Amino acid sequence: xxxxxxxxxxxxxxxxxxxxxxxxxxxxxxxxxxxxxxxxxxxxxxxxxxxxxxxxxxxxxxxxxxxxxxxxxx
Length: 74
Known about the structure:
The protein is α+β, with helices and mostly antiparallel strands.
């Protein structure tokens, strides 16, 4: 699955990384064109993703129930 998300504040990042850390899924944050890829469980990676124009969460597992509250409106 691939879903566009928003991580606008440090509170968003803390909550997102906390939620992802509780999951066993191997998930990543990417930019729109997949030029940058970081672990979705990495605080430093999530902070780095704030510099991208778009942030996408990618995972082979269905983690929609976790990332839905961070979903960006298209």
